[in-house]
Amino acid sequence: MPEVSPNPGAVRSRVSRLLVLLVVALIPILLCVALGRYEAERIAQREASLASAFIVGQVVSIVETAQSAARTFAPRANEACDTLSPDLTRKAAAVPYVRTLNILYEGRIDCSSAYSQQAVPDGGWLNGSAQASQDEWLLIVDDTPMVRNRPSLLVGVAGEAGRAVVAVVDVQYLLDLLHGAAPLTVFRQAELRVGEGAVLREAMALVNVRGAPLLVDVQKRMSGATIDLKIYGRPERILENWRALLLRYMPWAAAFSAWLVWLVRRLQQSGQSRREQLLRAIRANEFHVEYQPLYGVETGRCEGVEALLRWVRPGTGAIRPDEFIQVAEEEHVIVPLTQHLLKLIERDVATWEVAPGFHLGVNFAPEHLSGVQLVSDVQALRTAVAPHGATITLEITERTLVRNTEQARSNLVALRREGVRVAIDDFGMGYCSLSYLEKFPFDILKIDRGFVLTIDAQGSKAAVLDAIIDLAHSLGARLVAEGVETQVQRDYLCARGVTYIQGFFYARPMPSEAFVRWYRANGAHMSPNPHMTAGT
Ligand code: C2E
Ligand code: CA
Ligand code: CA
């Protein structure tokens, strides 16, 4: 019984199965976390952009109101203050937001809605930074002659004779606006810059915005200046939103993740159980081998057999070899299964006595072919069967890809040097392409039953089959025709120089004891299988 478990491949595949489960479990959870974070940030951005649209709209409206009031006096800026001052006073009282209207000349108040001409306080205003050169300007100053220690927004419009009309807007309006639309409970900070001068902040104490995400930064150009509004988010609030979203959606993500894990686990188990079933069947000795004779065309003798694996499951019955061999290949159990087969063959052949040079054909899968165990496995079989007259023929087919062609090649070269023959199986069919001829050394080509079936009832033509036979001859290879069932097929193939005939026409595969009896009776002179010929 071969060593089937545990092997490094099985451990690796268990680890990789666990890894797959872990990844599958994590995907919905991580997606939920990432999407939650993204959504929490989007909510904050949406709130900020709504607030900013409102604030900017209101600031524009306040500034335009003040500008329009100032513009009315631009043509009259040069008038005597006696007549102008009462009009300024009336206007300032009537226009919303505007505290005073002033005529500015060379950086000083020349005339004001708030003072009679004589009472205008002396001293620099605007600290000499009057924007006289510009037609219209906006400036936030920290204080005005009338209201100290409270910033004001100056809305300037150029007037007659180098003068300017300045509407003073109380900044409290803007601060209230910030406070109302972008409260500190929702945002870390809102910063408003209207034209030149100081930046207005919702919290007058400077708030550290480092680490706080900048949610909105809008600039609005208007006549004379730009309004710039920045709103920073509160990281704690984004976290809160994130937490709320996670609380809402995480149970769904967890459920989805559990479902996915269950699904993948089931898939893995069905794969695993197929593997387990095969390994268990090996341990339970449910396999046996049948041997199908090969008819030598020149000698008329039985010149070999092909060993074919059989699995009879208790309770289920026989399972088709092409089915379970494919599963064994997919589940990487083919090497231990073939090693088990070799042991069974050894045991069977121990009871045989065949003519020297007798071919014992054994099918090897690509995984075994390119593995490091092949040479020693075949050598062990060769040593065991040689005393009974048998020599080994490796039958190789391309059901799955040969991964390590170089290793496979060197295995075959080494084995051929020791007298093992190589047959290319299923030749010409889907499984086995011409590329095998290039890659591997070989002695025999086995023509697939599919081509034998193309021989028509009269035995007159089979073009592709003829081409394959010609190819084999020109390569110096011997030919086995498989699946020969009728006299016509046999005659056609013999006439074209095929070396061996294998098929129900001569004999079906049979268990070892049956073969031993059959060989004793028919080995030296093979005649058609009476059951077959009766039907044909
Ligand atoms: P294969 O290697 O091409 O084997 C020949 C198949 O043709 C066998 O089917 C055999 O029973 C069948 N056969 C022989 N003569 C006739 C005939 O005249 N008419 C018909 N209809 N069929 C005929 P089996 O035993 O069912 O095996 C099917 C395939 O399973 C094999 O095809 C081979 O690819 C795979 N297989 C069987 N045993 C083993 C094994 O021990 N190892 C590996 N790796 N593959 C095996
Ligand atoms: Ca075969
Ligand atoms: Ca075949």
UniProtKB/TrEMBL annotation:
EC number(s) per UniProt? 3.1.4.52
Q: Which residues form the EAL domain?
A: 271-523
Q: Which reaction does it catalyse?
A: 3',3'-c-di-GMP + H2O = 5'-phosphoguanylyl(3'->5')guanosine + H(+)
Which InterPro entries does its entry note? CSS-motif_dom (IPR024744), Cyclic-di-GMP_PDE-like (IPR050706), EAL_dom (IPR001633), EAL_sf (IPR035919)
Protein topology in the membrane: Multi-pass membrane protein
Give the domain of life. Bacteria
Its main subcellular localisation, reduced to a broad class, is membrane
Enzyme class, top EC level, equals hydrolase
Q: Does the keyword Cytoplasm apply?
A: no
Q: Where are the transmembrane segments?
A: 15-36, 245-264
Q: Where is the signal peptide?
A: none
Which UniProt key words apply to this protein? c-di-GMP, Cell membrane, Hydrolase, Membrane, Transmembrane, Transmembrane helix
Localisation: Cell membrane
User: What PROSITE patterns does UniProt report for this protein, alphabetically?
Assistant: EAL
By what name is this protein known? cyclic-guanylate-specific phosphodiesterase
